[in-house]
Each structure stands twice: as structure tokens, then as C-alpha cells.
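Comment thread on ticket #2218

A.B. wrote:
> Attaching the input chain for the structure job we discussed in standup.
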Amino acid sequence: MMFQGKTLSFVGERPELDGYTADLLRWDLTARYRLLQGLSLFLNWNNISNEPDESFQQATHFPTSQEYYGWTMELGVGYSF
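C.D. wrote:
> Ran it. Output below, let me know if you need it in another format.
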């Protein structure tokens, strides 16, 4: 799990025009299974919940931008010497 709280992204002419990024809570999963001595199977799944990255202004609390990056997954075989 990764959590990033509200952050100031730019300062406006007045405090109510300041820009912020919204809170972001993202879930990731990593799993590894040992097949044989030194050989393993792994899975990395990032941004499972596909939460948007949002920005807004202090005064309105209406989003000024919203981006979805989707999730990514890696499945592979690893070998350790």
C-alpha cells in the first residue's frame, strides 16, 4: 500500500487559489513462489485499484485535472546463483 497525502503543487495570487494534489491511496501486490533450488516464479501487480491522480484548487475543491494511469503487471521466472 502506498499513501500520499494532499500536497501543495502551486501558490496562487491568493490562498484560496493555491493548487493541490489530492490524497492518493494505491495498492500493489508482489508474490514469489520457489519452484526448485534457485528457480522461482514471481508476480508484481501495481496500482490494482486504478486510483486517479487528481489536482484541485483550495477554494473550489473541484478537480482541475484527473489522470488515470491504469495498472501494470509483471510475471516472470527468476534464477539465483
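A.B. wrote:
> Thanks. Noting for the ticket: The chain has no helices and nine strands.
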